[in-house]
Structure formats: C-alpha cells, structure tokens
Description:
By secondary structure, the protein is an alpha+beta fold. It has helices at about 10, 30-35, 55-75, 85-100, 160-170, 175-190, 205, 230-240; strands spanning about 15, 20, 110-115, 120-135, 140-150, 155, 170-175, 195-205, 220-225. Helix content is about 35%, strand content about 20%. The radius of gyration is 21 Å and the shape is globular. The structure holds zinc ion. Zinc ion (ZN) binds near residues 38, 136, 137 and 205.
Amino acid sequence: MKVNGFFKTETARPKLNGTHLPLNNSKNNGHDLIGDNHVATSLETPMREDAFLLSDEQKMLLIENKFRDIMNVLGLDLTDDSLNGTPHRVAKMFVKEIFSGLNPENKPKISVFDNKFKYGEMLVEKNINLNSTCEHHFLPIVGKAHVAYVSSGQVIGLSKINRVVDYFARRPQVQERLTVQIANEMKRILKTEDVAVIIDAKHLCVSSRGIQDEGSSTITAEYGGVFKDPLRKEEFLKYLSLSI
Ligand SMILES: [Zn+2]
C-alpha cells in the first residue's frame, strides 16, 4: 500500500549505520517555542487526511520498528530479555490504548433519554479520572475532569460522560483543546449549549523535566450557555468544592 507522507522524508535523509539522520540540526524553527509554551494551534486535533489508510496492525508494526530504532540509537541492548519486548509493547500501547481516541471508530456510541423526571437543575459529574498525553513531549497528563450540564429535554447515562472524557483524552493533547473538545461533544450529544467543563491536571513534562515543578497543576475551563451567568458558574464551582 502506498501512503502519502509516510516514507517520503526518509529517502532524502542521510544515513548513519542504517539510521536516517534529521535533515538539519536547527532547533529554533519555532517548534521548540510552541512546545515549551504548550500552545495549541487549533481546536481540532491536527490529523492528516491519510490518517486511517493503515490498519491498526500495520501501524503497530511500523511503530514497533521505529521505536526499536530509537532504542538502538540510545545505545540500548535490544537482545536483553527485559528490553526486547519493549518496542512491541510501546507500539501496542500507542495504537490500542493511549492514542486510541485518534480513531473516530473508537468514539463511544452514546444514546440519550428523555428527561422524564423534568429535572431542571444542573447535573454535575465531578472527579472524572483523566489520563492523557502532552502532544509536545509525549509525557502523561494526569488529573480530574468535572462536567456539568442543564438538560434541554434529554439526559445521558452518567458513566457516558466518563467515556466522552476518556475518548478525547486518549490522544496526544493540549489541555485547552481537550477541555473544549469534551464540551463541544457534550453540547452535540445533549443538543444544548448549557455545558461546562473544568479540567485540573498535572503535566509530567512540567513536573519531571524542564522547570521540574511538582507542586503545580493546570486548570482550564469552558463555560457554555447558562454557565456564562456568574451565578450558575458560582453554583457549579460550589458543588466542586463540596466533599461528599
Ligand atoms: Zn508537554
């Protein structure tokens, strides 16, 4: 199968012991600046048009080989029992687990129900476990998501909110984009603008490298519809501070 973009850069690159070298050593082409400042460049996860021409199995094989190259370049002995399965494990983890949310086929199918009880106040699902990956460093983002909505006539099962959070978290992410993607999906499913999302998360790229600040966490929020009203916002935030 011919897939545009997969191999074309490699053919032009110089090789060292069978390993392609980067075309130049220039670091300051803007990418470092964007990455270290954790700037998101778009609301949609940037994907190529040919992103799903390869099957999961083909992707795992390619990633396995390339990750083996990375380990080799680092000088690791891949014949060691402890290391020789690592390229396959990493490839499987990327495709089937931590980046499985890139594939729209894995999007949770969520059904809505009529709001039979005519519950008209906000519903808050708080402390939803969040495990994602920083797209600038490929290191974990770990935290909690809090989601609220006011029904416009339809409701969804509570665990489905966790599934929406998990689907968008399983991508290389920027926290701001993740927050808005979750809010937009909730708005789409529930056919209402009245949705709020807060994420409070630690970025391992901040705590374990770079500035190495272990104490800080990052909070992002998206308020739609009635949640733009300061009183509603305050009510939501009050529920989050309740320890039940
Ligand atoms: Zn990062």
